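Appendix B. Raw example, untouched.
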Amino acid sequence: MIKKVIVAAFLLLIGGLGGYLIFKIQAPADFDTLEPGAKLQKIITEQEQAIQEAVKEGVYKCCIEPACTMCYMEANKWNNYQAGTCACDDLIAQGEEPCPQCQKGLCLGDVCKTQRP
């Protein structure tokens, strides 16, 4: 009888440990426990995903690829003071300058793709 109890307890312990390890492996790492480099990569990845969602929703109309992050991160005159949006593509179509990050991405040497002849 005692042998059966010990075996059952051992099996429960092993099963519980196995379940914990599987959960721990599948669970996303807590941001606070990540190393600085991993934190940076997580921020970049999530920001890229958020921008892509905004593009799909039609509120992020950037003129460079990959899209600028400036308009996503801060309200400014290039996104009508609404962070998370971008109007640079529309601005270029209207003959206006895009945000500095887009401007830099569009310029090759002294020639910028936004300049009109």
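End of appendix B.
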